[in-house]
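User: Can you write out an input/output pair for a complex, sequences first and structure second?

Assistant: Here is one pair. Inputs:
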Amino acid sequence: MKKDLLGIADLTRAEIYLILDTAEAMREIGQRPIKKVPTLRGKTVVNLFYEPSTRTRTSFEIAEKRLSADTLNIAVATSSVLKGETLVDTAMNIEAMAPDMIVLRHASSGACHLLARICKSRIINAGDGMHEHPTQALLDAFTIREHKKRIEGLKVTVVGDLLHSRVLRSNVLLLTKLGADVWLCGPPTMVPSGIERLGVRVSTSVDEAVADADVIMMLRIQQERMHGAFFPSVREYFTVFGMTAERVKRARPDVIIMHPGPMNRGVEIASDVADGPCSVILEQVANGVAVRMAVLYLLAGGVEDEEAA
Amino acid sequence: MPVVMDADRMARTFARIAHEIVERNRGIEELALVGIRTRGVPMARRLALALGRIDGHEVPTGTLDITLYRDDLMRHAVGPQPLVRRTEIPFSIDDKRILLVDDVLYTGRTIRAALDALIDFGRPKLIQLIVLIDRGHRELPIKADYVGKNLPTSLSQSVQVHLTEIDGRDEVEIRES
């Protein structure tokens, strides 16, 4: 493994499989009466979150605690960032207290790369702007593999806001690396131009995109990142792109429905689909802890291509 | 590379250890076997079969991966982390007599890690240790309850246990490394 986990783009197939296999072992720890192993005793992990997050931050914190790391959370709402401190200054001050890893979420794409260059601590990207969210893609792949026993050759259809989604970018990179047949579907205003070059197929018809799909992945409509009108109304969006039980019928009978959360019920997904028998949305959350434990464990080891670690 | 135990000898060794287990525990009630990955796992299965043949009862068997409990994990700044594999103990160890199984007893550090790992699963009535080879050179105060063969070695030697399930043959050999 490299020093940091900045994105799926930097991972090889072998590294992805190593993380997924390690996560299999980590999941068992969560089923024990004492859900803790001493592996990261004495390591300090700082969770530095510049954007609101419940799931990801909680998931990282539980993963860190299950590995016995000392964790602390810095939520920007209560930090000196509000007094005008820059990201780099905040990071250098945290670094001065010698943590071993920093888990960073930031609204700017590339923020993790910046910190990785200036920090000795290992940096884990917990979502940077519209760029990547690697641990989400890894837990999605873990969930898919658990249900389908493979990833190669599966038809995976992703529907929703393709433009603002870092979850999409990480998932496309990972799924294409592992040989899945990835279809994307969303309003034309939300399809990044040239995305086909990543080796995916794009359709503006949900019916075509979900036909015979093994996996349907819904993306959240991210109203907080939208500056402008991308579609006329939420109602119209649901009518054209919302995942309904009727549409799910076009997919394979054993299709699984995924959503990275938080869900907008009645916007991108109907409640009966979100809570239905094909939904694996809560399993994704449970698997997130195991996948993050695997990443923390693997990054705590030595660095392969670095002389002075 | 001298062979210090062949397949016949190994089969008789497992049979003898199974009888010792029954004698010492006055039957196989409350017993459970836990094999330490990698080669402790097939050893535990073979012992479970042997115990079943003696007593007619099935002895529950589990698998322990001690990687996350190793005391040398974070000591080296270079090199990738050791591979972690699943621990599977599909029964409660509370109040059981746990027979911990490993192939070679050397420094005792693996067993120290295994004891810590086991205690995280509950409070067994007792833990006994079964090893196929005891090669000496202990670094911790740990001793096996059942030993297949005591094998005096020098620190420059290595002991390789081969088991059919993993290596295609039953054999123990000693190498100069």
